[in-house]
Amino acid sequence: MAAVLCVIALGSTLTGCGQFDLSLLVSNTDRAGASSENEANATPSEPEVTAPSVDDPAESADTLASGPSLCIDGTEKRSVLLTGEKASGVWVGDIVEPRGAQYRLRTVLSDDGCLIEGSFEYQGLNCSGTWTPAKVSFLDETATHPQNLQVNFLERVTRNPDNACADVAEVSLLSGPDGIYYSSTWSRSDGTSTSSATKLRRE
User: Fold this and answer.
1) Which of 87, 93, 157, 169 qualifies as a cystine partner to 198, CB 3.0-4.6 A?
2) Which of 119, 120, 121, 125 is nearest to 103 (CA)?
3) Both ends of the chain: CA-CA distance in Å?
4) How many CB atoms lie within 10 A of CB 52?
5) 66 near 81, Cβ under 8 Å?
6) How many CB atoms lie within 10 A of CB 27?
7) What confidence score (pLDDT) does residue 88 get?
8) Is the sign of the CA dihedral 160, 162, 165, 167 positive or negative?
């Protein structure tokens, strides 16, 4: 009702509606196809200014990171990592061999979803070396402990001043919600085969 009265007042004089914003009235008459000489005299309202959108570098990086990532060979990165984290990890475990030898394994593991690399040191035996190449396979849960990944390495000793370690061994890591388990098998100088195992923990 107030809008009708305002239109009547506009027919005679503008002073009665001078304090009102006419933008709504002008907009409505435009959509209806009507025109009035009063529209030419009305002061248009200030257009709403919208700031241009600026790409957030951090958001863009997150978007890229969440998208499909490829390894150098074109395969998609694994979503399950050996250590459960993207950063490299240092792990240790105490080993007691069947024949009584005792020493500590210290290993540095790195897994970026494409490659798994490992270096090791058998503290107490004074030998060290590398674990390569990595052969990765997915495993289901077992009755022993949950397992997500099994990684098989070829162990090569590169430092062995006391000849306390075999030059080559086979190493397996089982990784899952219950932790990382290490096992190794190698041949002694007398031709017999032996093995060792331990559960790893973060250093």
Assistant:
1) 93
2) 125
3) 80
4) 4
5) no
6) 11
7) 77
8) positive
DSSP states along 96-138: E-TTS-EEEEEEEEEE-SS-EEEEEEEETTTEEEEEEEEEEEE
- Residues 85 and 74 sit within 8 Å (Cβ to Cβ): no
Residue 191 φ/ψ, nearest 5 degrees? 95, -10
How many CB atoms sit inside 10 A of residue 48's CB? 5
Mean pLDDT of successive 10-residue segments in the chain (203 residues)? 43 44 42 45 53 47 52 89 79 92 95 92 97 90 77 97 95 90 92 93 92
Task: Quote the tokens at residue 52.
Answer: 């241009």
Instruction: Give burial (CB, 10 Å; 0-12/13-18/19+) of 198.
Output: middle
Residues in the chain: 203
DSSP 63-100: HHHHS--B-TTSPBPPSS-SSSSSS-EEEEEEEE-TTS
Burial label, 188 (beta-carbon count in 10 A; 0-12, 13-18, 19+): exposed
- Asked whether the CA dihedral 78, 79, 81, 85 is positive or negative, the reply is positive
Residue in 142, 203, 126 with CA at minimum distance from that of residue 174: 142
